[in-house]
Structure formats: structure tokens, C-alpha cells
Specification:
heterotrimer; A mainly alpha (about 230); B mainly alpha (about 50); C mainly alpha (about 250); A: about 230 residues; mainly alpha; elongated; C: about 250 residues; globular
Chain lengths: ~230, ~50, ~250
């Protein structure tokens, strides 16, 4: 009971509410990310050709890669506005726990950007001609992997805070970190498709989540303090 | 016999470019580092003369 | 102890003594390595003369990885003890390491074409080396992406440390990914069991490249220290002129 009422939890939840309200105000933002992902998923089969055999081999990867590519533009926005408006300055120099707030930011990014894309995955699965029994696994793997991507993304946003052309630099910095998520995420879906056990890949994805849940707030907080002290 | 060496069993178009690329890029790096170092030293000397 | 080491004058005195040795040793070992590699070592029974590319490919790979480790260690020193010299050393290591990783990729590609038939192969180690190149590129880009150079030092130091911690994880994932997709031919890219005659030129080239890198790093650090002094002098003279006006 004490923990539920503790100030950290209250801060955490209220910050998530704030982020969700602020960022979903313009419906266009939400829809444009969805539209971008849809566009990429449409382009791949057009480029590859409609032969079912060829598409079968790559459809899971197309889904994951389009998810990653559509998320990247939204990562820069995670910290930029708050940094520019000076809000991050105030929080960092106050006794408030910056790490909790950054954790809340990552999770709200996951809720706002990634969950809607994942909920739309049945539509994408139809376009890519994936079996229906794979869809629950797709939703599961992309939810878990997506959380890691948000956590890695906030580290990337903190790295380029204050840099010139930070937007162009951000993808280069975090893609190497996202590669294992991609490998194991697609691994889950491919394992389900071929009938073998996806559990190994699933546990690895969960392990990445746990690691980044701990590391990401602390590393981003460190980087933000570095950025503020300039 | 010398031809045998240059031809390297037909792999010559792969082996020689590798060696040439590696060695020339390392040589270039060395020479440009030495050049920049000399430039900086000259600048420092001129500035110190100006000061005194 | 690091204060002692980081004093620029002491740094210059020590490195002045070792620099010519490094230069000489690197030239000698590389020349001997080339001789043994190109002339005096046997052809491989499977790969023929193409195995000779190994004598530049493998040392480049070692140097690329080793220099990244040194980069990360130097960045840790910078973040923890805040020595400006550590930052200068990191910035000097990065371009050399990046060059070696690029050379590894290109020579690996040139080795792969006759062996595996294609220019690029998604071999686990080449893929990891490609990612390592991205780590180097990321460090170099981030450290130079700020208005004042010093602003980029701490963030890129954190980036390098993130990189070194992630490197084993990424290597593990890429290895897994590679075995998962069972390539058709499993030719190892460093030749079968290395016999002694092949070992000699290999070790000579590794030693030669290492000494060359050390020499270049020391040279570049000294250049940057001199440039710092020049900037300080220019700043001082500007201030003098401004104070004369006022």
C-alpha cells in the first residue's frame, strides 16, 4: 500500500498521463506515423513482386523493419521540446528524480507511438499475407521489442541533445543497438511460422527489456545532465 | 617465374589491391599526420616569436 | 597517478623518447611481415595464394577491435577523472580505428569474392565489423557535431562506453543470426589450422600495425596539444589588444 501511494509512483503515473495528453493532442501526428508504416509496407511488395513465395520469405522482416523505420522520426521529439522550453533544466536541477521521469517518457512513447502501430498489425498482416495464427505472436513480439526500442530511443535523443543536425545523427547512433532487437524479434515470428519454439528468442527479448529498463533511465539522465551543463 | 609471383595463381586482382590499398592508406595517414604536426609546430613558433 | 601521467610536459618528454622507436619498429616489422607474407610463406592447400590477403585482413581486424577497446578505456578515464588529455587521446584514436575497420571490410570483401563468389558476404564477423565501423563513425560524428568542440567530448565518451558494452551483445546476436540461417558453405575466413610459417608474417604484421598506430596516436595527440597552446596564445594576444583599446 505504501508503495502504491509513494511519491515516485504518483510522479511516474502523472507524468505518463501528461505525456499522453500532450502528444496525442494533434491527431495528425498519430496518424502520420501509422501512414508512414503503411507506406513502407506497401512499397516492399511492389518492389519485390507479387509472387507469394518471395513475399513469404521476407514478410516478417518487412513488418519489423517498417516498424523500426517509422519510429525513428518520432524519437527526436522525445526530448527536444522539453529541452528547448527549459523544462528539462528545471527538473534536472530540482530534487525530483529525473530517472523516473525519463522512464515515464519512454513508456509513454511506447504507449503513444508503438502500441497503435502494433494494434494495426492485423491490417499489415493481411497486406503481407501472413497467417492469422501468427498475429498474436507478432503483436507480442513487437510489443516487447517496441519497449526496448523506446528505451534505446530516449538514450539516442539524449545523446544528440544540443547537437547541430542531431536529427540526422540519431539513427546512425542507435541502429547498432536496435539490431539485436530486430534479430530476435524476427526470430520469434519466423520460429512460429516454421513451427519451432519461439521461446528462446522471446526470453532474449524480455532480457533485453529488463536490461534497458534499468540502464536507459540512468544513462539518459546522465546525458541530459551533461547537455544541461553546457 | 617472376610472372608466377605477380599472377599469384590468378588471385592477383584480389591480393594486390588489398595490399596496395592497406599500405597506401597507412602511408597517407602517416604523412598527413606528420605534415599537420609540422604545420602546428611552425604556427606555435611564429606565435611565440610574436609574443617575445 | 593519472595526474602525474597527464601533465603535458611529462607526456611530451616520455613520448619524445619512445616515438622514434615506435616508428622504426613499425617500419621494420611491416617490411619483414610483407616479405614473409608475400614471398616466404606457403600457399594454402584449399585457398591457394588468396590466403595471403589474410596477412592484411586479420591484422586490420585485430587493430580495429583493439583500438576500439582503447578508445572506450580512454573515454572512461575522461568521464571519471575528467582529464582533458584523455579526451584528446580518444579523438586521436578514433580515425585510425575507423580506417582499420574500413580496411578490414574492404580486404574481407576482396578475400570473399574469390573464395565465396560474392563481393559482400553476411559472414558473422564481417557483419560485426560493419557495426564496429558504425560505432567509430558515430563517435567521430557526435564528437564533432557541437558548436564548441568540447561540448561533444562527454556525450561521445558516453556513446563509446555504450558501444563497448553493447559490442559483445551485438556480436552474440549476429553469431546467433548467422548460424540460424545456415549458410551453404562454411569456409572459415581465416584459413584452416594455421601452420607456423603462416603464423610468422601474421604476427609480424599485427605488431607492425600496432606500433604504427601507437606512433600515429602519439603524433596526433602532440599536434592537438600544440594546437591548444596556439589557441591559448591567440586568445591571450586578442585579450591584450582588446585591453589596450579599453
Amino acid at each position: 500500500m505504501n508503495f502504491i501511494n509513494s511519491s515516485w509512483t504518483v510522479l511516474f503515473i502523472s507524468h505518463i498521463k501528461r505525456e499522453v495528453l500532450v502528444n496525442t493532442r494533434s491527431l495528425i501526428d498519430v496518424i502520420s506515423v501509422f501512414g508512414f508504416m503503411l507506406l513502407i509496407i506497401i512499397l516492399f511488395p511492389i518492389g519485390i513482386g507479387p509472387t507469394k513465395e518471395k513475399l513469404d520469405i521476407v514478410s516478417n522482416s518487412i513488418l519489423w523493419i517498417s516498424l523500426i523505420i517509422s519510429i525513428i522520426p518520432s524519437l527526436e521529439k522525445m526530448l527536444q521540446k522539453d529541452f528547448d522550453s527549459g523544462w528539462l533544466d528545471q527538473i534536472a536541477t530540482s530534487p525530483a528524480p529525473l530517472e523516473i521521469i525519463l522512464l515515464a517518457k519512454s513508456i509513454s512513447h511506447w504507449l503513444i507511438v508503438i502500441i497503435p502501430l502494433i494494434l494495426a498489425s492485423p491490417l499489415f498482416a493481411i497486406l503481407l499475407d501472413l497467417e492469422f495464427n501468427q498475429i498474436p505472436w507478432i503483436i507480442l513480439s513487437m510489443s516487447i521489442g517496441g519497449l526496448s526500442i523506446s528505451l534505446i530511443g530516449i538514450i539516442g535523443a539524449a545523446l544528440v541533445l544540443g547537437a547541430r543536425r542531431g536529427n540526422a545523427l540519431l539513427p546512425v547512433l542507435i541502429i547498432p543497438l536496435i539490431i539485436p532487437i530486430l534479430i530476435f524479434g524476427v526470430g520469434i515470428n519466423e520460429a512460429v511460422k516454421t513451427g519451432s519454439s519461439p521461446l528462446a528468442h522471446l526470453f532474449l527479448l524480455i532480457a533485453f527489456n529488463l536490461i534497458y529498463l534499468v540502464i536507459s533511465p540512468f544513462v539518459s539522465a546522465l546525458l541530459i545532465r551533461i547537455a544541461i551543463s553546457r | 617465374m617472376i610472372n608466377e609471383f605477380w599472377l599469384m595463381d590468378g588471385y592477383n586482382i584480389y591480393i594486390w589491391p588489398s595490399y596496395i590499398l592497406t599500405l597506401s592508406s597507412l602511408v597517407y595517414l602517416t604523412i598527413s599526420s606528420i605534415y599537420l604536426s609540422k604545420k602546428a609546430k611552425n604556427l606555435l613558433k611564429k606565435l611565440e616569436e610574436l609574443e617575445s | 597517478m593519472f595526474d602525474w601521467l597527464a601533465n603535458p610536459n611529462r607526456f611530451n618528454r616520455i613520448t619524445n623518447k619512445v616515438q622514434p622507436f615506435f616508428a622504426l619498429l613499425s617500419i621494420v616489422t611491416i617490411i619483414f611481415g610483407l616479405y614473409f607474407g608475400l614471398f616466404d610463406s606457403p600457399k594454402d592447400y584449399q585457398q591457394g595464394d588468396a590466403v595471403r590477403i589474410m596477412y592484411v585482413h586479420v591484422p586490420s581486424a585485430w587493430l580495429a577491435s583493439g583500438l576500439y577497446l582503447s578508445l572506450a578505456i580512454s573515454c572512461i578515464f575522461y568521464l571519471v577523472w575528467k582529464h582533458p588529455l584523455a579526451d584528446i587521446i580518444s579523438r586521436s584514436i578514433a580515425p585510425i580505428g575507423a580506417l582499420f575497420s574500413l580496411l578490414t571490410l574492404i580486404t574481407g570483401s576482396l578475400w570473399g569474392k574469390p573464395m565465396w563468389g560474392t563481393w559482400w558476404v553476411w559472414d558473422a564477423r564481417l557483419t560485426s565489423m560493419l557495426i564496429l565501423f558504425f560505432f567509430y563513425a558515430g563517435y567521430i560524428l557526435l564528437s564533432n557535431a557541437f558548436e564548441r568542440k568540447i561540448d561533444g567530448s562527454k556525450s561521445s565518451a558516453v556513446l563509446a562506453i555504450i558501444g563497448i558494452i553493447n559490442l559483445p551483445i551485438i556480436k552474440f546476436s549476429v553469431d546467433w543470426w548467422h548460424t540460424l540461417h545456415q549458410p551453404s558453405s562454411i569456409l572459415k575466413l581465416d584459413g584452416p589450422s594455421i601452420n607456423e610459417q603462416m603464423l610468422l608474417p601474421l604476427i609480424l604484421m599485427i605488431i607492425g600495425f600496432s606500433f604504427l598506430s601507437s606512433y600515429l596516436i602519439i603524433l596526433n595527440v602532440k599536434t592537438k596539444l600544440i594546437e591548444k597552446k596556439c589557441e591559448a596564445l591567440i586568445l591571450k594576444s586578442n585579450l591584450n589588444e582588446i585591453s589596450k583599446l579599453g
